[in-house]
Write a structure and sequence with these properties.
The complex is a heterodimer.
Chain A: E1 4-7, E2 10-13, H1 47-60, E3 67-71, H2 79-82, E4 86-89, H3 95-105, E5 110-116, H4 117-123, H5 125-133, E6 139-144, E7 147-148, E8 154-155, H6 174-177, H7 183-188, E9 193-200, H8 204-222, E10 227-233, H9 237-240, H10 247-253, H11 255-258, E11 262-266, E12 269-270, H12 273-292
Parallel strand pairs in A: 3-4, 3-5, 5-6, 6-10, 9-10
Antiparallel strand pairs in A: 1-2, 7-8, 9-11, 11-12
Helix pairs in contact in A: 1-8, 4-5
Chain B: E1 15-18, H1 19-29, E2 32-37, H2 44-53, E3 60-63, H3 67-79, E4 83-88, H4 90-105, E5 111-116, H5 122-128, E6 137-139, H6 144-161, E7 165-170, H7 171-175, E8 177-180, E9 209-210, H8 224-239, E10 245-248, E11 255-259, H9 262-276, E12 281-286, E13 288-290, H10 294-301, E14 306-310, H11 317-325, E15 331-333, H12 352-363
The chains are: A alpha/beta, B alpha/beta.
């Protein structure tokens, strides 16, 4: 028998025992834009979640018959064969430029890039910055796991201080390896960037929030307001050398503490990652205070 | 879809114009609607004229942040089904090489304007400075007039074979003012580009994929790595059909000179002078540097005593001449490095008198004349460099 206990936060479901009735699917869960239900990535990878999230956004916004994906090179490149979207495969780092050429020839299509942190922030940093500065009316999507997953776990420009990778065995040392780049902050400062957000897929709440970001980004492109950018923090337990089940917690406690979730530019307002951090600290303190008073308020 | 205005906007009645402008107008007459580039002499004016003229026909020209991005943008425009081009000179093209080789695997009909600084980029153009097993058609016009047709041929061949095509010009081609009329050249019709992306097949189960990789969409026939390489290799064999050359005075020639591009005009003029003197000399001018016109060179060499390669470089095309001649006659290099103070290949060798005496010396079996001042910087090895280094001397 499953039972529930009540805490100041509300009821907690006991997951130690099986539920009385079997779990049931309340709605179809497979996105429309998949050619197969399988993917080729590792267990615990966050990239399929991120892809699913933007596929849902494209479908919900009725952009299906006009979407074109320009794909970078990384683990996620395998989605090129499994996603039912007109595709241009770009070279490592070059996707924003390729997307520029596609968009200029098809101004009414929904053109987006799918890139990793190695692809975009290492190899192709100037491409994404100049594309944003031009106000190119495309959406760039960054899957950021702070590591070169495909090559087997090497440091990227977004690896956080202390992060252990195959070429930072003692952890990333700023004195020796330099500091991570907060790419969203760089882009948000550029006049041509209209919408910049950083999401994550480490829990259900972050997925839901990230989907809203994708929707806003694609709507920004639809309204031809300029460059839009969504970064998504994704788990890479293989490249982080941790057990699969620890991926989400590792993400929120390492990358998530540096590359902080939130909208960095929306409706003309720029917020830095530092401000998002301060906001999170303030919200956490408020929550603590509310809990101390006996429960969360609306 | 791409906006296309009548191409008459680019065509002109006879007018005096810079080579770059004539080439650009020819490209637009051939329905080129996208260009991206990064300024670099002597290519810069090609970019300038595209920037000025493309918007008038509903096209787009982007001044890219570097050559890497320029070729990426052109890649995207081509993948979207437009006729598109990029370009630069040797150094800038070196930056683009990764994209050139992969664009061949992706079967992108990209046109590349190479306004080179010398003929020393022959290897870069014909061997590909990039990685992998690929070839590009390389067209080398001798002057502006021929260049206007070659630009249009380049777009046609690129689409016909779905393969990058390079136009190998130089400072003289890009900057010479000639009185020309830009006219549209008609080519046989080509099939519609049903492979290009426009988003319309997304979500239909029949979405398209323009990719250099061997993978395709689930449900579509995938090449695999080896299959893709095999597919491209067998395609390259068909591209060799596009070899083109001009020959002159070769029927009874005892000495045959092979030469290309702007310097070919100097060689042809010198050979006409030597013919007036009664010397049996002729020439072959490859118009396609790849595929190299093997048959034309081999046929010309059959009755010849000697074959010379005149190039403004330390000798690059001479390798292809030797392969084509295949031992039927001795092949000698009679060109040389030759540069003006800016490095644009307009040095002392590019002079009819100089060229004529080099051909005469070859014909008469004499050593090549030494250009005064050209021995000033000859390399002198240090004594330790002349000592054998030992080890790995394999004996049987």
């Amino acid at each position: 028998m499953s039972s529930t206990t009540t805490t100041p936060l509300g009821p907690v479901i006991d997951t130690a025992t099986a539920p009385v009735s079997g779990a049931r699917i309340v709605e179809p869960k497979t996105p429309d834009l998949l050619l197969t239900n399988t993917h080729h990535l590792c267990p615990g990878c966050g990239e399929p979640l991120a892809v699913r999230t933007f596929l849902d956004a494209i479908t919900e916004l009725h952009l299906v018959d006009q979407a074109i994906c320009v794909l970078g090179i990384g683990c996620y490149t395998s989605f090129g064969s499994t996603v039912d979207i007109d595709l241009v495969q770009a070279l490592h780092g070059r996707a924003p430029s390729v997307a520029t050429g596609v968009k200029r020839m098809h101004p009414d299509a929904t053109v987006f890039t799918l890139q990793g942190d190695g692809d975009m922030v290492n190899e192709g940093l100037q491409e994404v910055l100049h594309t944003a500065a031009r106000g190119e009316n495309v959406t760039c999507i960054l899957l950021n796991n702070g590591v070169f997953g495909e090559t087997g776990g090497h440091m990227t420009a977004t690896s956080v201080i202390g992060q252990r990778t195959k070429n930072t065995l003692e952890g990333r040392d700023p004195e020796y390896h330099g500091y991570p780049i907060l790419i969203g902050d760089l882009i948000a400062r550029l006049e041509g960037a209209a919408y910049v957000a950083r999401g994550s897929v480490h829990n259900a709440g972050s997925v839901a929030r990230t989907k809203k970001m994708f929707r806003r980004a694609f709507q920004t492109q639809e309204r031809k307001e300029g460059f839009s950018f969504v970064e998504v923090l994704t788990m890479c337990p293989t490249g982080w050398f941790i057990p699969t089940s620890e991926g989400p917690d590792y993400l929120s406690s390492t990358l998530g503490e540096v590359h902080i979730m939130g909208e960095l530019k929306a409706d003309g307002v720029i917020r830095t990652t530092e401000e998002l951090h301060d906001e999170n600290v303030r919200k956490a303190a408020e929550m603590e205070a509310q809990l101390a008073r006996g429960g969360l308020e609306d | 879809m791409t906006a296309t205005a009548p191409t008459t906007a680019a065509t002109t009645d006879r007018a005096l114009m810079e080579g770059s402008e004539a080439l650009v107008r020819a490209a637009i007459a051939a329905d080129c609607r996208f260009f991206a580039g990064y300024p670099m002499t002597p290519f810069t004016e090609v970019l300038e004229h595209f920037a000025e003229l493309l918007p008038d026909v509903g096209g787009v020209c982007i001044n890219a942040e570097s050559e890497l991005e320029a070729v990426g943008m052109a890649w995207g425009a081509v993948a979207a089904g437009a006729r598109a081009a990029t370009g630069s000179t040797g150094q800038g093209l070196a930056l683009m090489q990764e994209s050139f080789s992969e664009a061949t695997l992706a079967e992108l009909p990209l046109v590349i304007f190479n306004m080179s600084r010398s003929q020393g980029d022959y290897f870069q153009a014909t061997r590909g400075g990039g990685h992998g097993d690929y070839r590009h058609i390389v067209l080398a016009p001798q002057d502006v007039r021929e260049g206007m047709e070659i630009v249009q041929l380049a777009f046609h061949l690129a689409d016909k074979w779905r393969n990058p095509v390079m136009i190998y010009g130089d400072y003289l081609l890009a900057h010479t003012q000639e009185a020309v009329s830009v006219e549209r050249v008609a080519y046989p019709p080509l099939p519609a580009k049903d492979w290009a992306v426009d988003g319309s097949r997304t979500g239909t189960g029949q979405s398209r994929s323009v990719t250099p990789l061997g993978v395709m969409k689930v449900g579509q026939r995938a090449f695999g790595q080896e299959g893709k390489a095999q597919y491209i290799a067998t395609k390259m064999a068909f591209l060799e059909r596009e070899a083109r050359a001009e020959s002159g005075y070769v029927d009874d020639a005892e000495t045959v000179i092979v030469t290309f591009g702007s310097p070919a005009k100097f060689v042809k003029y010198a050979i006409a002078q030597l013919r007036d003197e009664g010397l049996k000399v002729g020439y072959v001018r490859p118009i396609t540097l790849w595929p190299f016109p093997v048959d034309a060179v081999r046929d010309a060499a059959q009755g010849a005593r000697v074959v010379g390669s005149f190039e403004i470089s330390s000798g690059q095309m001479v390798d292809d001449v030797r392969i084509a001649v295949a031992g039927a006659a001795p092949v000698e290099f009679i060109g040389g490095v030759s540069s003006d103070h800016s490095g644009f290949g307009l040095g002392r060798l590019l002079d009819v008198d100089e060229v004529r005496e080099r051909i005469r010396a070859l014909h008469e079996g004499r050593p090549q004349p030494v250009v005064p001042g050209y021995d000033e910087f000859t390399y002198e090895p240090a004594p330790h460099q002349l000592e054998p280094s030992g080890h790995l001397e394999v004996t049987q």
